[in-house]
Write a structure and sequence with these properties.
This protein is an alpha/beta fold and about 260 residues long. It is built from eleven helices and ten strands. The protein has a seven-stranded mixed sheet with strand order 3-2-1-7-8-10-9, with helices on one face. A three-stranded mixed sheet has the order 4-6-5. The longest helix has 13 residues.
Length: about 260
Amino acid sequence: MRKTVFAFLKAIGKFLPKSLKLRLLSLRVVRYLCFGKFGVTPFWEDRLRLFMKQIIKPGMTCIDVGANNGEHTKLMAELVGAAGKVFSYEAFPETARVLAEDMKGLDNVTVGNYAVSDGSVDSIPLFAGRNHSSAEWSILSDRGEGFESTSTLNVPSASVDQLVGEVQVDFVKIDVEGAEPMVLNGMRKMLRAAKPVVMIEFHKGAWHGRKALLDAGYTLYDPGGRKIDPASDTRSYHTYAFPPETELDAEAILQGCGPVTW
């Protein structure tokens, strides 16, 4: 049923303006047909959840970098089960405190209040996002989105490699509001040794950070399952990175997660 709906949307999407496509995807009935739920989260969040459900298996270890309210952390914990492990990191202290409270009772989740970076310092300034949104705090004062913020506090900082050491990690989600290059540079050892699948949001001015993935032999895909040319300067906001010699069919997995740009 879902594949039929996807095919129909793709067919009619060729003749519709982008604004109308987005309005269609926001309709509750369309979201139910596409994603099997009447949720109100953005459709790209639904796609990410479907992606994680295909990638993450019981017993795996996952990392949620920029966990915010922990929605993705909770899903990871559910998918890895009692034999698995989830490391969840959030920079803003109050959000991290609430996150830790919400994760009490989940023995497979470890929450850390860290601004994950390249590991060059153990404390780093944190800058507020637009309207001090709890989802947009960043270690960058200017993230290329038309506004510049001032620092309000310092928070503990460490790299992924420092935080998890030699642990075999299978999946990493990164949403760090423009600090992607620093986070990726701080997990170069893991990318080469553990070779996890990585889902990352590249904000404006951060696209060059993909070099850490490419240097480790990763193949990058856009949300529609199309390979991204390593030399392309065209940023893919949502990027899915698969390690070398993976047995996963990246294109099929991504194309099975629902419509994106049609």
